[in-house]
Amino acid sequence: MADSPIRGIDPSARPSGEGCVECLAGDGPGWWFHLRRCAACGHIGCCDSSPSQHGTRHAREAGHPFLASFEPGEAWLWNVETEQYYEGPELAAPAAHPDSQPVPGPSGKVPADWQVHLH
Question: How far is 48 from 78, CA to CA, in rounded Å?
C-alpha cells in the first residue's frame, strides 16, 4: 500500500473496473443498485442495498476498513468497522463509474421489479 496517513486507505489504488467484480463474474443475481470502491485496493463491489452486498463483504473479508462511493457526484468514505462516515484523501481516478452507466446496473441484468429486491 502506498504511503497514507490513514490505515486502510491507499490513494494510488485504481478502481478494479466499472462494475461490481463479483456480480459481473456471476456471483448472485448479477446486478447492483449502487457501487462502492475499496479505499485500500480499488475493488469495486455493490452497496449494502444491493441484493448481494459484495462491497462490505470484500471489506470485511480482506480487512480493508474503508469503502468509498463509486457513484457520480458523490465523494465520501465509510468505515465498515466503526460504521461512520469519514473524510480522507482523494482517491486515484476515476472517482465514479461512467455517467452513461445505468443505475441500477448493469444494463440488461436488472429485473423489472428491482425495488422489491433491495435491502
Answer: 12
Burial class (CB in 10 A: 0-12, 13-18, 19+), 116: exposed
pLDDT band at 105 (very low <50, low <70, confident <90, very high): very high
Pairing of strands 77-79, 66-69: antiparallel
Sheet with 44-46, strands from edge to edge, namely 44-46, 35-38, 66-69, 77-79, 84-86
Q: What is the pLDDT, as a whole number, of residue 87?
A: 87
> Environment class of residue 21 by beta-carbon count within 10 Å: exposed (0-12), middle (13-18) or buried (19+)?
middle
CATH code at 17-90: 3.30.40.10
Q: CB of 49 within 8 A of CB of 34?
A: yes
- Asked whether the beta carbons of 55 and 35 are under 8 A apart, the reply is yes
Q: Is residue 4 scored above 60 in pLDDT?
A: no
The answer to whether residues 53 and 23 touch, using CB atoms and an 8 Å cutoff, is no
Domain boundaries of the chain, sorted by first residue? 17-90
